[in-house]
Write a structure and sequence with these properties.
It is found in: Secreted, Cell wall. This is Pectin acetylesterase. The chain has 418 residues and is of the alpha/beta class. The protein contains 14 helices and 14 strands. The protein has one domain: Rossmann fold, CATH 3.40.50. A ten-stranded mixed beta sheet has the order 4-1-2-5-3-8-9-10-11-14, sandwiched between helices. A two-stranded antiparallel sheet has the order 6-7. A two-stranded antiparallel sheet has the order 12-13. The protein is globular.
Length: 418
């Protein structure tokens, strides 16, 4: 069953890459390809026959008056499933991911998709993994109020600008604010516990907004943040260039994100550097948990060895399947892992922070049931991700675990693209 499921994902990935290339949108292989398919609710569609929780879309009705709109001017939205019992006053906010748009062309394309317009969003999505309502699938958060905030701005909820000629609204920061105000009015202001989480571009947004989220609540409320697959590194690609920095330069400049990035960073670094989480994490005051694959599939495919940096295709097979990497390529990827471990050193020194870095070729592990909490989930020291996060959140144990280097971990759910 699992093999069929991941084969379907791989086929979908190839197809979506081809479609996006055909649309002239493949440029950096960044948007609507790997990222969208590696995230949870797309994956969960393969389980459509199962008894899964479907949660409807709520549009933020007063958002337009605040200018808090998607790229195309439509209302932003979220999916909310109410908590009960011991979780009635606990809130988990999950920020959707899905890449970024860095120029007019890619943003215009994006506004015709669910990543840029609520007109194209699914009216219902499946809640799995950290959003599941079953105790056996999500032991610590199953009965909380669980929210999935949809992503339709293309700058990790950080921009505030517009382009009238192209009819584009870059209002991620306003969407964040309007959504939080709406949820506070629906009971979140009474929370005694809250967790902000997100995967990929949503994981980056979690880091950017973590202290803001803390500021919504009284100090008596337990507030923490969880970034899944959001540790994007300012790394040199295989051609010696900086593919991801070039992309972020466009995102920050076009969308006016500079004024919404943490000042503690922008006071001494340029705004592009402050869009990289490696320059933010050590100064986040709120307890933060970083969950990341040491060999993040998206970063390998789209930041380290994208086709634009590999014109002769030397990295193509390795990019799609880690088992086809040559010894020098694996050595290069070990260097990427070392870079990641170096970046988190200062962050890891703070007792309040948590860490789970596993040596897998994957991306986004909290929203997929098989990687979050299942019989064969990835583990470090015999502890699954869900239990590690729960132990950290509830102060049952300190959690700072780093896997041994590839290929030592046989519990990984590696992503393979065909």
């Amino acid at each position: 069953m699992a093999r069929v499921f991941w084969t379907a994902i791989a086929i979908a990935l190839v197809f979506s890459s081809w479609v996006d290339g055909f649309e002239g949108y493949y440029e950096h292989q960044f948007n609507e390809t790997e990222l969208s398919l590696l995230e949870a609710h797309e994956a969960s569609l393969s389980y459509a026959g199962s008894n899964l929780l479907l949660v409807g879309l709520t549009l933020v009705q007063n958002a337009a008056a605040k200018g808090a709109v998607c790229l195309d001017g439509t209302l932003p939205g979220y999916h909310l499933h109410r908590g009960y019992g011991s979780g009635a006053n606990s809130w988990l906010i999950n920020l959707e991911g899905g890449g970024w748009c860095n120029n007019i062309r890619t943003c215009v394309y994006r506004k015709k998709t669910r990543r840029g317009s609520s007109d194209f969003m699914e009216k219902e999505i499946y809640f799995t993994g950290i959003l599941s309502n079953k105790a056996e699938e999500n032991p610590d958060f199953f009965n909380w109020n669980r929210v999935k905030l949809r992503y339709c701005d293309g700058a990790s909820f950080a921009g505030d600008s517009e382009d009238e000629t192209a009819e584009l609204q870059f209002r991620g920061q306003r969407i964040w604010t309007a959504a939080m105000e709406d949820l506070m009015s629906k009971g979140m202001r009474f929370a005694d516990q809250a967790l902000l989480s997100g995967c990929s571009a949503g994981g980056l947004a979690t880091i950017i907004h973590c202290d803001e989220f803390r500021g919504l609540f009284p100090m008596t409320t337990r507030v923490k943040c969880l970034s899944d697959a959001g540790l994007f590194l300012d790394a040199i690609d295989v051609s010696g260039g900086r593919t991801l920095r070039n992309l972020y330069s466009g995102v920050v400049g076009l969308q006016g994100a500079q004024k919404n990035l943490p000042q503690i960073c922008t006071n001494h670094l340029d705004p592009i550097s402050c869009f990289f989480p490696q320059n933010l994490i050590a100064s986040v005051k709120t307890p933060l948990f970083i969950l990341n694959a040491a060999y993040d599939s998206w970063q390998i495919q789209s930041s380290l060895a994208p086709p634009s940096a590999d014109p002769h295709g030397y990295w193509r097979d390795c990019r799609l399947n880690h088992a086809k990497c040559t010894a020098p390529q694996i050595q290069y990827l070990q260097g990427f892992r070392n870079h990641m471990l170096n970046v988190i050193k200062d962050f890891a020194r703070a007792n309040q922070n948590g860490l789970f870095i596993n040596s897998c070729f994957s991306h986004c592990q909290t929203e997929r049931q098989d990687t979050w909490f299942a019989d064969n989930s990835p583990v470090i020291r015999n502890k699954a991700i869900a239990l590690a996060v729960g132990d950290w959140y509830f102060d049952r144990a300190g959690v700072k675990v780093i896997d041994c280097p590839y290929p030592c971990d046989n519990t990984c759910h590696h992503l393979i693209f065909r």
